[in-house]
Queue: 4 jobs
Job 1
Amino acid sequence: GQQVMQIPQYQHVQEGEDFTTYCNSSTTLSNIQWYKQRPGGHPVFLIQLVKSGEVKKQKRLTFQFGEAKKNSSLHITATQTTDVGTYFCAGPGGNQFYFGTGTSLTVIP
Amino acid sequence: DAGITQSPRHKVTETGTPVTLRCHQTENHRYMYWYRQDPGHGLRLIHYSYGVKDTDKGEVSDGYSVSRSKTEDFLLTLESATSSQTSVYFCAISESERQAPNGYTFGSGTRLTVV
C-alpha cells in the first residue's frame, strides 16, 4: 500500500538553529498534509499542500511540495523551545491518509 | 480540540478482557477514524467510518471491531485484549475524505495498557 517515509527520526538542535524534516512517497500524491504533536499531546493539523512546487509559509515554518509531488519538506527557521514536538507528514492513499513515522524535534535552550 | 472527545483517557486492562473506547464528536463530520500510535510506527489506521453504519478496515484492523450507530459516536472494541494492543489510541474526524483541506481533527487520545 501507500507508504510515506519521513527522515530524520530524531533531531536535536540548539535554540536558534534551523531544522528541516523530509517526507518521501513511493507514489505521486494528490496532496500532502503536515501535523505537529507536542509531547503528551495529540496531532494538530498545520497545513495542506496541493500544487506541484507549492511553497507555503507560516511565520518561521516553510512548507514545500516537490515538483513531482512525491516529496515534501518542513523547514523551521531559528527554532524556539515552543517548536519542540513531533512533526508528521501525511499523504492520501485509497480512502485514508497514511502518516509518516514522524520527526521528533528537541530544542536545547 | 473542541468538538471531539475520547473516553476513557487512560485504561489498564487484563489480557483476554473486552475493551471499548469511545469517540464522540459535535462537529457533525461524516468521516471518523481510529488510529493507534506506537514508537517507531507513527500513526496507523485501524478502522474508519464514512457514515452511520458504514465502516471499513484500515491497515492494522486485526483484533479490532468498530460500530457507528449515530453520526456523533464511533466505538472501537478490542474483543479480547492482548499485550500487543497496548498503545495510544487516537480518534480523528474530517469533513471530507482524501482532500480534507482543513485536515483531520484529533481527539486527546486514550492510553491503553494491557497487562
Job 2
Amino acid sequence: GENVEQHPSTLSVQEGDSAVIKCTYSDSASNYFPWYKQELGKGPQLIIDIRSNVGEKKDQRIAVTLNKTAKHFSLHITETQPEDSAVYFCAASTHHSGYALNFGKGTSLLVTP
Amino acid sequence: GAVVSQHPSWVICKSGTSVKIECRSLDFQATTMFWYRQFPKQSLMLMATSNEGSKATYEQGVEKDKFLINHASLTLSTLTVTSAHPEDSSFYICSARFRKETQYFGPGTRLLVL
C-alpha cells in the first residue's frame, strides 16, 4: 500500500520567516496530494491541494510543489505568522482506492513572535 | 467551502455501552464518507470507507462488528462503537468526499470510555 513520509516532525521558525515541510510517497499511482492544518482539538482543515498533472500551485502565502519523478511534494509557507502554528499533515491518494487518504505523520509548526 | 459537522463533539460513557457518532455534510451531498481515528500526537488512521447505500469497507485490523458504520443518506453517515472499552477512547474524525477527490473533515468527536 501507499506509504507517505513527512519531515520534519517539528519545525520552529520566527515570525516572518518561511517554513518548508516535505513529503515523499511510494505509490506511483498516487495522483492527488492535499495538505491539512490541524489545530489542537479540532478536525483537519484543507489548506491547499495539488493534482499530479500540475507541478506547482500557490494560494497567497501558501504554495505546494510536486515532483512526480522523485515522488515528493512540499508545502511552503511564506511570511509566517503566529496563527500559522499548528500541526500540518500531507496526504496522498489514488483513484483506485476511492481517494482514501494516506497521511504522513505530521509536522508540528511553531511560529514565535 | 464545504462544511462537515459531527455530533456529539465529545462523549463520556461507561465500559460496555454503545456510542453513536453522526457525521453530516451540511451543504453538499457525499456519496462517500470516511472515518478516521487519531490518538494523541499521532496521525490520522483510516478506519473505514462509507458509501451511501452499500456496506462500508473496513481497513485491515478494524473490527467491523465493533465499529458499525451506516451511510443511509447522501448527507449522513454514522459510526457506532459497540460495547466500548477504555482502549476505544480516542478522537474520531469523519470526512466527506466533495467533487471527486477532495475531502472535508468534521470537527471530530472525543470519546472517553471509563
Job 3
Amino acid sequence: ELKVEQNPLFLSMQEGKNYTIYCNYSTTSDRLYWYRQDPGKSLESLFVLLSNGAVKQEGRLMASLDTKARLSTLHITAAVHDLSATYFCAANTNAGKSTFGDGTTLTVKP
Amino acid sequence: KAGVTQTPRYLIKTRGQQVTLSCSPISGHRSVSWYQQTPGQGLQFLFEYFSETQRNKGNFPGRFSGRQFSNSRSEMNVSTLELGDSALYLCASSIGTGAGNTIYFGEGSWLTVV
C-alpha cells in the first residue's frame, strides 16, 4: 500500500527566506503532484512530475522528483505572504488512484 | 471557459439519510475523480471515472458509490449517512487519463451530517 509522508507539517517562515518541503512515498509511483489549498477553498494544481530528475518551476516555487529515493521536494525561494497556504503532495498508483500526504501548512510572516 | 462545477455547495443531512453530489467537468474533459477531505483523515481518493467507466476506487465502504454519464458529468452517492461522513467532497476533472494532464478541482460540496 502506497504511503506518502510530508514534512514538516507546519512551517513558519519570514518573508524573503528560503525553505524546502519534503515528500516521501513508499512504493513506485508513476507521477507526483503538488497542490496548494487556501483556507476554506479547494485545491489548486501546482505541478505534476513524471520522471526521475524532473524539475518544474513557477514563480517562487520549484518542485523536483527523485524516483530512486522516492522523494519529491517543493522549494520556496524568497517567500512572500501570498504563499501562505497548505501544500499537499500526492503520489499515484494504478494511474489515477492518488494517495495524499498530510499537507504542510505554510505561514509567511513579514 | 467554465471550470469544474459542483452542486450543491453546502448541505446538511441527518444520519441514516442518503445524499447525491453532482459534478460537471470542464467542457471536453472526460476524466473525473472524487476526493473526500476531513480534518481527521485528510484527503482521500474516492473514485476515478473515464468514459463512463470506473477505473479506480479508493478504500471506502460500499455505501459510497458513483457513476459517470455519457456527457462526462458525474455523481456520487452516499447511503446510510454516518456522522463521520461529514466532509468536503471534491471533484476534479482532466482531459484524459494521461500522466501529465493537469487536474482541475471544483469548489467542493460541504456535507454536514447531524
Job 4
Amino acid sequence: KAGVTQTPRYLIKTRGQQVTLSCSPISGHRSVSWYQQTPGQGLQFLFEYFSETQRNKGNFPGRFSGRQFSNSRSEMNVSTLELGDSALYLCATRLAGGTDTQYFGPGTRLTVL
Amino acid sequence: AQKVTQAQTEISVVEKEDVTLDCVYETRDTTYYLFWYKQPPSGELVFLIRRNSFDEQNEISGRYSWNFQKSTSSFNFTITASQVVDSAVYFCALGGYNTDKLIFGTGTRLQVFP
C-alpha cells in the first residue's frame, strides 16, 4: 500500500512569491492535516480537512490557506512568502476524522530566499 | 491549554543500552490520545505507538515499551537494546477526540553509537 505522497519534495522561492504544496493521502484515507516544522517553533498544526471541509485551523496568518479535493488530495498555499516561512511542511492523513492514527508524508522542504 | 513537554533535548547511548524517553502532557480533555513518532534524518515522521486516555495498560511491542500514567500525566517510551538505526528525533504528541490536531513536544534527539 503506497504511503502519503507530497510534492514537490524541495522548493526554493524568493520573498513575495507564492507557493502551492500538494499532498496525496494513502488510498482510502479521507482526512488530511498539515503541519509546519521549523527549528525555532517545532511542529505546529496548520489545518485539517475532511470531506473537502476545513475542520480546524491553527494559529497562522491568512497567507496560509488550503483545500481538499473530492479525491481527498489536498493542497496548501502560502502567499507573499516571508523568510520565516522556510520550513519543512508535513502532511498527515488518516481513514476518517476522529480516532484513527495519522500517517505522515516525507514532507516538502521550502526555502525562502 | 494543551501542552507536551519533552525535557530531554538529547540523549546519547551506546548500542544495546536501554533508553527511556520522557514525556509529560497537559490537557483538560477527559478523552485524548498520546502518540510517539520517530523522525529520522530523511524527515518523515514515522508512527510508533498510540495510547488512549482510558486505557492505562502498558505494553511491550518488540523492543518498544511504554509507561502511561494518568496520575502524573506522563507517557514515557523505552527502547530496549538500542541499535544504531534507532538514532533519530523522537516526538511525543497529544491528540484530541474527533480532531486531527496534534500537539507535539519539542522532541528528543537520540544518538546511538556503535
